[in-house]
Design goal:
Number of strands: 7
Shape: globular
Radius of gyration: 21 Å
Helix content: 40-55%
Order of helices and strands: EEHHEHEHEHEHEHHHHH
Structural class: alpha/beta
Strand order of the largest sheet: 1-2-4-5-6-3-7
């Protein structure tokens, strides 16, 4: 499915897409997370999009909200997009609409404007998308910029407006939960303490993403080598010491993939023929230049 043009004047939406889309499969298959995490996410998504409309909001208060939290570079945003694509395939009841929200479009120095913009998003923009009648997944990436922890709001900013904007997010999530049962939110955060507690309390599922261990890193490295030389894979035994070194260095998943690229940049012959890169090249790249630690 092709992307959908965002109507002019619609505030806060980065992009719209119809799913499933064959080009999105990698966003699920090539993210390596602990066993069971993908199953829980997909099971929840199928249940939320398929059954929320018939459940009592008192008996089973399903808000249609997943939160993925963890350090940068662990695959949260990519997997969120892949999750929506997998849900579209599993539901098999027509195309699913995916909306990517830009949380940084809302902060404003004008008193009250953040609150009004956020309120419009949840009271008008998202319900308008839901009115198309399709299963709809809304990504709230870096949600700590949108649902700011009110107890930790800096006095150097406008704390009144911060409170009002976060209040608008909470009211908006509640409104969509009641009126748009075909909408499910996926929120990501690099900094859980920065997200308001009342927002987190509304989440039906919170999954933590940590730095990959040696086994996951070996899978990531194998995938990266296979991308450079399709049809061939690096011998698993060759990856064990390299994966252990990457884990000891505290690399996140993105940095592991970047490390393979750094190895290629280190030699002209590899830039010409990247299929010749070896684990020794990658290990040498790890020792040349330290990666910044994710925060």
């Amino acid at each position: 499915m092709a992307g959908i043009q965002v109507p002019p004047g619609v505030e806060g939406i980065l992009s719209l897409a119809e799913l499933p889309d064959e080009t999105w499969i990698d966003r699920w298959d090539r993210i390596f997370v602990p066993e069971g995490l993908k199953d829980r996410l997909l099971n929840y998504m199928i249940f939320s999009l398929g059954h929320r409309g018939r459940l009592s909001e008192v008996s089973l208060p399903l808000h249609g909200l997943i939160v993925l939290e963890g350090p940068p570079g662990t695959g949260k945003t990519t997997l969120a997009r892949g999750l929506a694509d997998q849900a579209a395939r599993a539901l098999d009841n027509g195309p699913l609409l995916f909306a990517d929200i830009n949380p940084h479009a809302f902060p404003s120095q004008l008193l009250g404007e953040s609150q009004r913009a956020v309120a419009r998003l949840f009271s008008r923009t998202i319900p308008d998308l839901a009115a198309r009648g399709r299963p709809t997944v809304v990504l709230l990436d870096e949600v700590e910029a949108l649902a700011v922890n009110r107890s930790g709001a800096s006095l150097e900013t406008n704390p009144v407006d911060v409170h009002r904007a976060t209040d608008a997010v909470l009211a908006g999530i509640d409104h969509v939960a009641r009126s748009c049962p075909n909408v499910t939110f996926v929120a990501t955060t690099n900094y859980r303490p920065g997200v308001d507690g009342a927002f987190l309390s509304r989440a039906d599922l919170i999954e933590a993403f940590g730095l990959p261990g040696p086994e996951a890193i070996a899978l990531i490295l194998s995938d990266a080598f296979a991308e450079l030389a399709p049809g061939s894979t690096q011998a698993p035994d060759d990856l064990v010491p390299l994966a252990a070194a990457c884990a000891k260095a505290g690399l996140d998943a993105r940095q592991v993939r970047k490390l393979v690229l750094r190895a290629i940049y280190g030699r002209r012959s590899l830039a010409i023929d990247p299929t010749a890169v070896t684990t020794a090249d990658v290990l040498a790249a790890l020792g040349r230049e330290p990666f910044p630690r994710a925060r």
